[in-house]
Amino acid sequence: MAIFSPEHGATGKLNINSVSDSVDRATGAGGPPFRTVLAKGGVLPSVKSFFAWSVILLTMIRLSVLYPAAPGSRFNWDYYLGPHLALSQKLLTPRGLVRTEIDRGIGSLPPGALAPYHAVGHLFFRSLADLQSALAATAADFIADERNYTDVPSVVQISEVVE
After folding, report:
1. Chain segment 64-82, per-residue pLDDT in tens
2. Cα(155)–Cα(108) distance, rounded to whole angstroms?
3. Considering all CA atoms of the chain, what is the largest pairwise distance in Å, rounded to the nearest integer?
4. CB 3.0–4.6 Å: which of 9, 81, 82, 108 could bond 113 by disulfide?
5. Whole-number CA gyration radius for the chain
6. At a CB cut-off of 8 Å and minimum separation 6, what does 147 contact?
7. What is the pTM assigned to this prediction?
8. Do 13 and 77 fall within a single domain?
9. What is the pLDDT of residues 9-52, one digit of tens each?
10. Domain ends where: 22, 42, 58?
11. CB atoms < 10 A from the CB of 34, how many?
12. Domains held by the chain: number
């Protein structure tokens, strides 16, 4: 279920009734409806609480930056994991960055083939609006910094995390 999808309103805000209905369906009977518990400031039973937060937290926007491992290309892992990662967190956390993940390419298929990418960096935001705002304010800084750790142009994809 996509909490921030268009059917939940043009604002992209969380529709607690939709979440409540989904939680109640998934967790079955045996207690007051989820929205009633929340409205009364109650504590959720552990299964409902876990499911509700899982649904909310899994729906995010992800910016993936892929660094191709072209023959003869350069990628400086020490710089990328040090100063570049620190710059990312410093500039993007106040602008809605939720978390980062970094993948190091170690292989491909068939077994033994070289990885097509040196690295893939994933940056997670709660909404597309947060991501767009963050990029508008910081893109020049990241473009300038890229030459410090690689000599190949990055490939960028923006995705909705669906599972």
Report:
1. 999 999 999 999 999 999 9
2. 18
3. 62
4. 108
5. 20
6. none
7. 0.66
8. no
9. 444 444 444 444 444 444 454 555 544 444 555 554 555 555 55
10. 58
11. 26
12. 2
Residue-wise pLDDT for 122-151, tens only, equals: 999 999 999 999 999 999 999 999 999 999
Question: Hey, what are 59's tokens?
Answer: 């729906």
Looking up residue 104, the CATH number of its domain turns out to be: 3.30.70.100
The answer as to whether 1 is a domain residue is no
Task: Give the end-to-end CA distance of the chain in Å, rounded to a whole number.
Answer: 9
CB-based contacts of 80: which residues, under 8 Å, 6+ apart? Answer: 102, 119, 149, 150
Contact by Cβ (8 Å): 154, 146: yes
Domain holding 31, by residue range, is 6-58
Q: Is 112 in the same domain as 53?
A: no
CA dihedral (63, 80, 142, 146) positive or negative: negative
